[in-house]
Amino acid sequence: MQKSDLGQSAFRIAFGVLMAFIILNVAAIVAVVAVNSFGTQWFTGWLPEAFTTSWYSRAWKEFQLGDVLWTTALAVGAVVLLSVLIGVPAAYVLARVEFRGKRLVTLLFLLPLLVPPMTYGIPLATVLYQVNLGGSLWGVILANLVPCAPFVVMVMTPFIEQIDTRVEVAARVFGAGTLTIFRRILMPLLLPGIMAASLLVLVRTISMFELTFLTAGADSQTLVVALYYAVFAAGIRSAQSIDAMAVIYMLTTLVWVLIAFRFIDPTQMVGKVRVQKSS
């Protein structure tokens, strides 16, 4: 066996061991939180002395999870809708139109994705509070829109680039207007990309902590911010009820992640389009 083959085998083994170690640690942390959310007392031993589901009803009432989940749904839905309405036309322009400074404009669009949210989150929150939007639901929506709209642009641009411009030209030759072309031709072709971008933005917004934390008020907290306050706010709270809230947050995010990976694979779809086009 050659040295290169031995090196590759050793690398694969080391990488597999490292990945197994990481997965095992993450699974252990999730298991501890999940088990504790059902446990009554857990002072000794590997498992609690008894199990109960009362911590979930207690967390629901104590942390007002009904209102928090409704606020989260409103914020996430608005961010997804506005991101698509802004990002799809912007991606179409960047994919179709050549103009001076296009690379600079593209870089500006992608800049919120390249830098940590906290670096621009504090100035953004300051501006929102100065215009009386900080601490409100609209403040949370606008803050999350800053990285999410460029994310839609990044996802949608490859989809639009794969659509042959001759299809649109042919439609115009036969008298189709801009709205007709968009509704009858572009929308069916772009729908997989729009669904991919929407689901990924949805998951991203649910898990976005920094920008939401800086702009949310008492009545505009999403689930991730409410979980943070439940852990670190003043007062004594049961660890089991906090873990129950954490399980609800994990399940909410996990469901949408599974939906995203079950139905949407942007890289695979773009790759298939390129293969078809090249063949």
From TrEMBL:
<keyword id="KW-0997">Cell inner membrane</keyword>
<feature type="transmembrane region" description="Helical">
    <location>
        <begin position="107"/>
        <end position="131"/>
    </location>
</feature>
<dbReference type="Pfam" id="PF00528">
    <property type="entry name" value="BPD_transp_1"/>
</dbReference>
<comment type="similarity">
    <text>Belongs to the binding-protein-dependent transport system permease family.</text>
</comment>
<feature type="transmembrane region" description="Helical">
    <location>
        <begin position="68"/>
        <end position="95"/>
    </location>
</feature>
<feature type="transmembrane region" description="Helical">
    <location>
        <begin position="12"/>
        <end position="35"/>
    </location>
</feature>
<feature type="transmembrane region" description="Helical">
    <location>
        <begin position="244"/>
        <end position="264"/>
    </location>
</feature>
<keyword id="KW-1003">Cell membrane</keyword>
<feature type="domain" description="ABC transmembrane type-1">
    <location>
        <begin position="69"/>
        <end position="260"/>
    </location>
</feature>
<dbReference type="InterPro" id="IPR035906">
    <property type="entry name" value="MetI-like_sf"/>
</dbReference>
<feature type="transmembrane region" description="Helical">
    <location>
        <begin position="181"/>
        <end position="203"/>
    </location>
</feature>
<feature type="transmembrane region" description="Helical">
    <location>
        <begin position="137"/>
        <end position="160"/>
    </location>
</feature>
<keyword id="KW-0812">Transmembrane</keyword>
<keyword id="KW-0472">Membrane</keyword>
<keyword id="KW-1133">Transmembrane helix</keyword>
<protein>
    <submittedName>
        <fullName>ABC transporter permease subunit</fullName>
    </submittedName>
</protein>
<dbReference type="InterPro" id="IPR000515">
    <property type="entry name" value="MetI-like"/>
</dbReference>
<keyword id="KW-0813">Transport</keyword>
<feature type="transmembrane region" description="Helical">
    <location>
        <begin position="209"/>
        <end position="232"/>
    </location>
</feature>
